[in-house]
Amino acid sequence: MIIIYLIIMLAIVSIPEWINRLNQSNGIGADMNIIFQFIYFFMFYYLIMTVFVFIAISIIAYVGKGISHLMKRKLTYGLLWKMSACTVTIPFLLFTFISFIWQVNDSFLFFTFLFSLGLLFIMIQHYPKRRKS
What we know:
About 75% of the residues lie in helices and about 0% in strands. The chain is mostly helical. Helix 3 packs parallel to helix 6 (about 110-125).
């Protein structure tokens, strides 16, 4: 279910770039039919962005696994991956709204990474510690 959530959210996040590509009067694909522009956009922007986001979420979850191990919390990688996927919601929606107004630099994604790590750290602190056996 979280995968479907992420795919829909990434589709929403890519709307400003799709509108920007449709409004371009020159460059690659400017004279293509709208159907072909959609296919081009899907193949070379949306799919690549989706792959990179899933890799970034996996890295964040892996770092979270290390943090939870150091803090002696009982969390699995799968749970950390789902938590990491939820932490990117606020920065991605913020990116979408700001992109409609201004051109946003890709360095914003680095701040998304830091925000997600910080939020994941706070979420890990709320889980109980392992019992000593």
